[in-house]
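Please check our next protein.
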Amino acid sequence: LIYYQSSINLNPLFPPSYNNYGKALLDLKRFADSLKYFDQALILDPQYIECLNNKGIALKELRQLKESLKCIQLAFEIKNDDPKTLTNLGVVLSAQKKYEESIIFFESAIRADPGCAEAWSNKASTYIELKKLQDALYCFEQTLSLKSDFEWSVGNFLFTRLKLGIWNDYDHYLNKIFSGIITQQKIVKPFICLVLTSDSFLQNTCAEIYSKFLHPLKIDFNYNVKNLDTRKIKLAYFSADFGSHAVSSLLAEFLELRDKNLFEIIAFSFSNDDGSSMYSRIVNSFDEFIVVEN
């Protein structure tokens, strides 16, 4: 960042310096901070395709999906055969749960560049959402044939094989994953790791790798929870399952029977109202219920 700032200082009218600074912030997961640098680059060069893509991804990560799509569509209008742009359009559409439409763009990206591992990987993940496991497996195979260490793909590949009941070479891929975890590779996501091993060291190491990937910098959480009684013990529950789900069925009565004189409880929900009676029951069990999905 220091060198990029020096580049800006030397020539404030050079768009790539702003884009590179923003991309560095994007890689650090500082999505909101990156936007002002992308915007400055685009003021200087409104047709800067790489920057439009970077800004679109930053907006996607901030869950501003409509704005993200508009931004990447601008890049598409400038050059409609750019593999990165086509892949990013697919990524944003998939985030909007427009899976069939996103597949079209991933396929276009692959036609433009058959060696685009990112397009193959995202196409595979989208097929998983569509429950098309055989198609997903083929795409993961293509991803790994192009880039054998493409992030998380070995774990996704093995997990998809298990879902399809394919057990040959299981030990080979399992050992590859365990070795990858030990050497700090982004090879498997934590929930898949839980399926593959009961080894607490491997599970913990895998979770640490994934956490550092998601949050490379320590971020202070400054949300002010309302009306807390400082005389009580405060507990927070984080979940995506505050609805019609086994977790809620097990948790609801426990929450309702707590000693309200001793405990104040807050929910942080990673999912929206599913319309179920259980969701309403869970919401009413907490002193404060905060939806943080977006």
In short: Residues 15 and 45 are 7 Å apart (CA to CA). The first strand starts at residue 233 and ends at 239. The chain has a mean pLDDT of 93. The radius of gyration is 22 Å.
